[in-house]
Design a protein that fits this description.
Layout (H helix, E strand, L loop, with lengths): L17 H12 L6 H4 L3 E6 L11 H14 L3 E6 L12 H18 L4 E6 L4 H12 L3 E5 L6 E3 L2 E3 L3 H11 L5 H8 L14 H12 L14 H20 L9 H13 L5 H12 L2 E3 L1 H9 L15 H6 L2 H8 L16 H7 L23 E5 L2 E7 L10 E9 L2 H7 L12 E4 L20 H5 L6 E4 L11 E3 L19 E5 L4 E4 L3 H10 L2 H4 L6 H9 L19 E3 L4
Parallel strand pairs: 1-2, 1-3, 3-4, 7-16, 10-11, 11-12, 12-13
Antiparallel strand pairs: 5-6, 8-9, 9-13, 10-14, 14-15
Bound molecules: FE2/S2 (inorganic) cluster and magnesium ion.
Length: 577
Amino acid sequence: MQDGPPGLRGNLTNYGDSGFALFLRKAFIKGSGYTDDALDRTVVGIVDTGSGFNPCHGNMPQLIEAVKRGVMLAGGLPVEFPTISVHEAFSQPTSMFLRNLMSMDTEEMIRALPVDAVVLIGGCDKTVPAQLMGAASAGKPAIQLVTGSMLTGSHRGVRVGACTDCRSFWGRYRAEEIDDEEIAEVNGRLVGSVGTCSVAGTASTMACVAEALGVSLPGSATPPAVTADRTRYAEMTGTRAVEMAREGLTVDRILTRGAFENALRVLLALGGSTNGLVHLAAVAGRLGYSLDLERFDAMSRETPVLVDLKPAGDHYMEDLHRAGGVPRLLLELRDLLNTDELTVTGRTLGEELDRAPAPFPQEVVRTRSAPVYPAGGIAVLRGNLAPNGAIIKQAAADPVLMEHRGRAVVFEDSEDLARRIDDEDLDVTPDDVLVLRGIGPIGAPGMPEAGYIPIPRKLARQGVKDMVRVSDGRMSGTAAGTIVLHVSPEAAAGGPLALVRDGDTIRLSVEERLIHLDVPDDELAARAQEAPRAAAAPRPGRGYRKLYVDHVNQAEHGCDFDFLRSETDRGAVPGAP
Ligand code: FES
Ligand code: MG
């Protein structure tokens, strides 16, 4: 018998005879041609999330090969296994709807298989959160590897990348500034290679956040998918996974309160996707931590946006990589970080920063004295319209609209929006507030990224680029605008958003952190009696959709299932100042 991790002896299903169970296990896997020497080693599982429908994971075969090489260099046995794969564009009704399913798949496969450690390979928006949620619950040594960003493309001399430019070109097409021929041409330019979106969308955000959490190797968040750097990180990740198994470095020792604080800090300084907040709340919940939105907002006020990435800035992920990546950002934030937190390397974050490459002049990661935006990218709002909170990505909003009072133009759900938004007779002006409800975690279900409500066509044609928009949904991290999101409780759960009527006045004040409906309380109570929307919404009768709608929690809790949260309460993140 070997010393150290149990290898194939791990996790034996006991038929009342564990010797026989091992005998069977070995007999079957030897069908793949393994020798006893191979099988009597530390086993590293590699989670394969490749799929023909997931170009963001299109480099999966190369990454798996490199991870395997790294595992074998360290004397371990690599064994890959699949879980579901979730791509943003191929996930009906939404990728968020499938995230929890992927997390359950990941958790249970890690539990089920005799793996001493696991390398999680993910990339596209929901996959890294799903893997971290699952691995956090499974509790074995785990290390995250991301697939890396796609290369940017070029359209008629202009550099383009998915998917901020997808949105801006489509917006120009809607405004009839570009024609059918050009929109068809740009369609083939936006995605330059396999890999994840090249801006500070959710995939890039979660890659950087994972590095800040300490759950992936330092420097590994930013190399593009098709580069030698990416492949080298894959090899190093495999090697490190073997060592983590031998050291018994389980994921709960890395995903601590201090680590989550570091991750929230990086989310803010990155001007990262608002989805990152939902995902971090979900991962933290798996370890018993609850997101405290007020403390997060306080953190936001003292954390400037330093990374100049689209959509809030000008650059792409490959530029961030060349500028020094996440370590460069962490060095700039060092005094605001918990540097005693352990990382997957077995060293603390502070020790890693001591080893980080020395800063050199570059334009992507700004210094604290010359930030992209003076406060954090995300502000938390409250008010009678969002008793449990709402958020706005202030760094990507129009400063003129951040203090605004306007007339509500209400859409009941995405179908209603699609039917009427481009109607020439729609009663709407640029000063109005567009309200979309019924797109929360339960409402849609799966909280679609429909919070990026398009500017009504007749206004877009007049050159209107931004309006205040309010919804209980999410928006893509690649989108920008004065957009209030994640209104909680959502309309379908009986939140006051359900009570807004056309013509009501809504007040947004980012300065006061307020989202307010100028309607008296007694009038709102009377409206609630008249039409309780939550009761009217049809509930699915079967399948995963029923499980989802019956158990999904609200955005501030991460839209996880209530039964997947940890049963231990470890308190709030961020912790008390
Ligand atoms: Fe996969 Fe953007 S669609 S990362
Ligand atoms: Mg996205």
